[in-house]
Queue: 4 jobs
Job 1
Amino acid sequence: MHTAEHSSFSMVCPKGDTMTDSTQHTLDTLAKVLLRCWIMGFVLLFISLGAILLMGETIHKLHGSMFGLSAHELDVIFYCWMGLLKIAVLTFFFIPWLSIKMVMKKLA
């Protein structure tokens, strides 16, 4: 079902599949967006870590008194927050970016 005009603008994939220039451009753009989101997610993680390390006592006083939490409980909450953020950033941004890059490299 491929016409000569269509195949001149497409890249033949293994097993006879094709990827048009438009699809390749879309995947490339999506990969760039995912990479930037991954980087910004880790910047947020490092900012959170820096805030906790530099202003930990102030944060403990403020949030501890607001919610009646001990310093240990707040440390556990912060540790869980950073772990969940790291897992979310890797799952939703890095792994899809890596998958797209692998597919594009295979088809190049």
Note: The first helix runs from residue 4 to 8.
Job 2
Amino acid sequence: MAMEKKPESNSPEIHVSGRPDIDAFEAVMMREDRAKGFFVSFDYSGEAMSEIQAFFKKTGKIIRPITVKDIVDSHAFTGVALTFSGCACPATALLKTALTPAFTGGELPRN
């Protein structure tokens, strides 16, 4: 797992999923005989996206890369309560920071 700091911003380091992360996910999909998988990350490297395409061409199995931004921007989550477990991992802290402005009382804003 790679931790990168976006050079153009002063924001904290975010996790960028790379090819090794996708390779590990592919192994689980093959072992569990899954045709489709959803992989959530803050961002993806170019190599990760290329690996997702190569995996589909080779196996016909689909990995759908989803970013946290996709989730926050999605209207599909309107009215869904958001809770965080007691996890103190850096990714959870970053997710809380990224999502806090978009929520009121732990819920997504209603349109």
Note: The chain is about 40% helix and 20% strand.
Job 3
Amino acid sequence: MYKLRKENCEEGQIIFKHGDVLDRVYILAEGSIEVFLSIQDEDLVLDNIKVPGSTLGQYSFLAETPITYNARATSETNLLVLPFDKLM
């Protein structure tokens, strides 16, 4: 059985950016994450994720495409990280 890796993020830390090719799924353990697009030097917030157990990055894995949005911690945030190769 694979043990999930913990990742701590400071408030304002970028978790990933539009165009990144992810090799992992992120699971929110504690804190909050803002999902947004950057358009002409302005951020358009799409969602605020605060529910523990919420996941990020899984659609990039399923579609086998680069990520289509940005994500940043909006508070001290703890994530659990599951590499894609452990999903197969």
Note: The chain has a mean pLDDT of 91.
Job 4
Amino acid sequence: MARTGRLSDTAGGGKQYLTPVEAAQLIWPDAEASRPGVSKATVLRLYDAGQLRGFRTPGGQRRIERASVDELNRVRRLPQRTAAQRAEYFAALADLVRRNEQLQGGAAEG
């Protein structure tokens, strides 16, 4: 049987599943990468770590859910906050909590 390289629709209610090699070609390391893709070994590690969903065929081959690849790409494109931005965020959050507690305390007294 000839390999077509197409995505396969298999078990799971019509969800699309990929071979690890197909999944590797769809994962972008970063937006500025000159070419897309990671190694097959990286896909297998991501699958084993639970960062990619899928299943094993009766022969032991992994099939990766296409939606989990898309989700991984989406998450990795989110802007990463610097330590200073995180500190500023948590300081503002702590200030909001303090103000809320003050308001709640004032409402209980009245």
Note: Residues 11 and 25 are 22 Å apart (CA to CA).
